[in-house]
Amino acid sequence: MKSRIESLVRPEILALRAYHVPPAAGLIKLDAMENPYGWPESLLSEWLETLRGVEPNRYPDPQGEALQAALRKAMGIPSDMGLLLGNGSDELIQMLALTVAQPGRKVLSVEPGFVIYRMVGLFSGMEYVGVPLQAEDFSLDLPAMLEAIEREQPALVYLAYPNNPTGNRFDVDDMVRIIEAAPGLVIVDEAYAPFTDYSFMGLLGDWDNLLVMRTVSKMGLAGLRLGYLVGPTPWLAEIDKVRLPYNVNVLTQVSATFALEHKDVFDAQTQSIRTERGHLFEALGGIEGLQLYPSEANFILVRTPAGRAGAIFDGLKERKILIKNLDGAHPLLADCLRLTVGSPEENAAMVEALKAVMA
Ligand code: PMP
Fold this sequence. Notes:
pyridoxal phosphate; EC 2.6.1.9; amino-acid biosynthesis; 13 strands; four-stranded antiparallel beta sheet; histidinol-phosphate transaminase activity; transferase
């Protein structure tokens, strides 16, 4: 079987490791940028009531019309722009790649950046080009970006804004220069939009190659798996052709529509996460040896003393706290850990554990 696998499976897939999510049972989960807050009891019962109307024997609405309308209303999507739904924004990243993929074509993003851009580039048979960010503050290296765009002529440029895993937002003028230089599509991935005041949504239409991608995951609905892509209708009409029918299931459609009608609840939660991010940043600043990177997302990247990230990660896990160890993920992330902003209690436990482990 081994030889048959080796001769059949594409070499670039053979060389990969499957996306690994560590088990988190019994741990305080601060590794995946989730909203730590559950739903208020009254909202839960009202939601369960709406599920009574679901017909699980029927396929879902293929376009998710009601959900699209709820998103347009709640999220300030420009009325002249198209909207496309995905099973998480991960699926939209893949749909974009499938729409343009041809041998020899390139996908470009920054490093360190969101790993799915690279993975999806490979899955779709394109080449991935990663342009390093500036080492000192993870800002864009504009000359390097423009040079890479000129040299590689990428079909797609993905830019997370704010960026994961660094937490910063790139300079708007730099982004504009990139959009203007790019021969293909530029997708501004605003997964962390609930935690910043800046967005490219209002700039849609200023360039014919700009699309904005969002998700409801970080506002508190990660389990529903819903992402959305906004941009000029002619682009979305083409991308819609590679969407598999019924990609957003009926439970997600009904539940997300319901949740968006109660967006104030989630806005209050994300606002409190923003406040807690400030408190956590301050508390982490009091720990000797930690270098902090300012964040406009719901996580904070920290650099630990050289060679200690693995032991600090393990020490936190022994104290029942799961974070993300990024040491080894990219040269610019040596000794780095990514800490999701949790509830005040979770953050306090994480800070105490860090103090104990680093003492
Ligand atoms: N984009 C960025 C920048 C992310 O960090 C993430 C999730 N970590 C996603 C997209 C994927 O989000 P979703 O849950 O909608 O697939």
